[in-house]
Every structure is written in structure tokens, then in C-alpha cells.
């Protein structure tokens, strides 16, 4: 069972950060869905729910997501869903159930960077930044690769672009962890690809590492998917490394092709509205 010797609910993230630095074993509490599974006594539990981080704000150039925003809140945010082509919504869709997603937070998920995370994989290929109280703002990809120890994550910022994007995953059964997941996004004329649940932390490919031009030939697509296949994979009870490598190639290809086939958001909305119109009855 998880126990706290002391529970604090600071009003500001600076206060939370200072408490975190004062005690090496102090622990930040997000939605507590993952933390509650541990069996230990924490000297100081720092609950961020009083710090005003539970809003999604749309600015001229970004969606600014407070760390305490729940997976459910972001999953159902229509503007964010449309812009990002549902990659987050599809990524979290099979995580346990509605009640769970209404408690687990985007910040707790991004900070923990779990190997199996669908959330990390869905946010990595977008133009995503994370804002910390101590370390300031950095690219999410740089944080996933190592940055910001013992800090308070305040916000996740997703810059606005005309994204073409798709999330794909394979689960052995509904609500199980992904056996492998992949997310591709095209923005600013560049492709970005994340492959996660390898089963280790997601890997991110872009630029020369991915080698995929905005408009690609079948051979260029084959080469990019081969690069996804060549990432390092591990074996666990869900799948072997060899099976994951196969999956990485297939899911990356599906994600890239699905994203590449998308129209701009306005056209897709118009086509969806036309398709939904009742058809005329002919005499
Ligand atoms: C049974 C189960 C099944 C799951 N299945 C999936 C799945 O299939 N796919 C998937 O992607 N995820 C899955 N998850 C993970 C889940 O989606 C969340 O990512 C996870 O619960 C963490 O979010 P939380 O808000 O509960 O964080 P918490 O449990 O509160 O915290 C997690 C960690 O992050 C730290 N932390 C939290 N917030 C902050 C912050 N703002 N700043 C700094 N540190 C912080 C905490 O100290 C802790 O170390 C699963 C979790 C559980 C319990």
C-alpha cells in the first residue's frame, strides 16, 4: 500500500518545486493512478491539484495543456482533436476505461515517460514542448531522451500546424498495454515518426534519421519503414523482439500512408458534412 507521512497541497508550482528539492524522497502527485500501485511510504506527497494546472488553453499559435488536465479532458477537446488528426484521442482510447482516463493526467503520463506509453508516442511526432518550474521549456523529444530530473512539469505545449498525422498500435487484447505503437506526423514539410512500447521508451525519428521527403516514392517509404524496423527491440511476455521489429515496419507504414492520404482539416470537415447529409429519395 502507498502511504504518505505528510501530504501537502501547495498553491503554486514554485512552492511545489521547493518542497521537492528539500526532500530527496518527496513525490509529486498527479492523478495518482500509477503511483497508487506502489508499496512504500513517501515522506512528503506534493499534490499539484491546487496549482491551477487543470485547463487547456488555446492561444494564437498553440494549445497549452496544464499538467493536471486529465487524459479524458484532452481526448474530448474538439479543437485539439481536429488539429492533431485524433492521434491523442486514438492513442488513449483503449487505456482501461472512461473513469480511469478522467483521473490519470497528461502531466503524470508525460513526466513518467513509461516504455509502454501510448501518450508519449502520440505527442512525440507533433511540435510538442514541455514547461518545467526549474528547467524551463524544452522540446518534448529532448525531455524523453533524458532531461529534467526532480522537477515539476507545469504544461505541455503543442504548437499549431496543418498536421497530417496518424496513431497506430497493436494490443493483444483490449485495454492491455500496446505490444507496439507508432505515430507519424507531417508538419512544416517534414515527416516525424515515433515508435514506442519497444517495450522500452519510445524512439523518435525525423530529418535524416528518418529520410522521408514530404512527397515520397514507394522506395523512399520502404527505406523509412526499414529504419523503424532497425530500431532496437526487446522481448517480454507480450512479444519477441523479432515480432516487434516486424510490427514496427507495418505500423509505421500504416501511420505514414494514412497521414499522407489526409486532406487539410477544412476539406475533411466539408466532406464529412456532405457524407452525413441525408440522400434524396428518388421517385
Ligand atoms: C492499470 C494501468 C494501465 C495503464 N495502461 C496504459 C496504457 O495502455 N497506455 C498508456 O499510455 N498508459 C497506460 N497507463 C498509464 C496511465 O495512462 C498514466 O500515464 C499513469 O497513470 C500516470 O498518470 P497519473 O496522472 O496517474 O500520474 P501519477 O501516478 O500521479 O504520477 C506518475 C509519476 O509522475 C510523477 N508526476 C506526476 N505529475 C507530475 C508533474 N506534473 N510533474 C512532475 N512529476 C509528476 C509522479 O511523481 C510519479 O512519479 C496505465 C496505468 C495503469 C495504472
TrEMBL record:
Gene3D superfamilies: 3.30.465.10, CO dehydrogenase flavoprotein, C-terminal domain. Residues 1-163 form the FAD-binding PCMH-type domain. Transmembrane segments: none annotated. It comes from the Bacteria. Pfam families: FAD_binding_5. This is FAD binding domain-containing protein. It comes from Paratractidigestivibacter faecalis.
Amino acid at each position: 500500500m502507498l502511504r504518505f507521512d505528510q501530504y501537502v497541497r501547495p498553491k503554486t508550482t514554485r512552492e511545489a518545486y521547493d518542497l521537492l528539492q528539500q526532500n530527496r524522497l518527496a513525490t509529486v502527485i498527479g492523478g495518482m493512478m500509477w503511483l497508487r500501485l506502489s508499496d512504500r511510504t513517501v515522506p512528503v506527497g506534493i499534490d499539484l491539484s491546487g496549482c491551477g494546472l487543470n485547463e487547456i488553453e488555446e492561444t494564437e499559435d498553440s494549445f497549452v495543456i496544464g499538467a493536471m488536465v486529465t487524459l479524458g479532458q484532452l481526448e474530448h477537446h474538439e479543437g485539439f482533436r481536429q488539429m492533431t488528426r485524433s492521434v491523442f484521442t486514438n492513442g488513449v482510447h483503449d487505456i482501461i476505461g472512461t473513469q480511469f482516463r478522467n483521473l490519470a493526467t497528461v502531466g503524470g503520463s508525460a513526466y513518467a515517460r513509461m516504455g509502454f506509453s501510448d501518450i508519449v508516442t502520440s505527442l512525440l511526432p507533433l511540435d510538442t514542448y514541455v514547461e518545467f518550474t526549474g528547467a524551463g521549456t524544452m522540446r518534448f523529444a529532448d525531455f524523453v531522451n533524458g532531461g529534467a530530473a526532480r522537477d515539476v512539469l507545469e504544461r505541455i505545449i503543442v504548437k499549431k500546424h496543418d498536421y497530417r498525422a496518424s496513431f497506430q498500435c497493436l494490443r493483444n487484447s483490449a485495454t492491455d498495454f500496446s505490444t507496439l505503437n507508432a505515430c507519424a506526423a507531417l508538419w512544416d514539410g517534414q515527416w516525424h515518426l515515433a515508435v514506442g512500447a519497444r517495450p522500452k521508451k519510445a524512439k523518435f525519428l525525423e530529418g535524416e534519421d528518418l529520410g522521408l521527403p514530404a512527397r515520397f516514392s514507394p522506395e523512399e517509404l520502404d527505406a523509412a519503414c526499414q529504419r523503424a524496423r532497425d530500431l532496437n527491440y526487446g522481448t517480454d511476455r507480450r512479444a519477441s523482439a523479432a515480432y516487434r521489429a516486424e510490427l514496427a515496419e507495418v505500423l509505421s507504414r500504416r501511420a505514414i500512408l494514412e497521414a499522407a492520404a489526409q486532406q487539410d482539416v477544412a476539406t475533411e470537415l466539408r466532406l464529412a458534412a456532405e457524407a452525413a447529409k441525408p440522400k434524396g429519395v428518388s421517385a
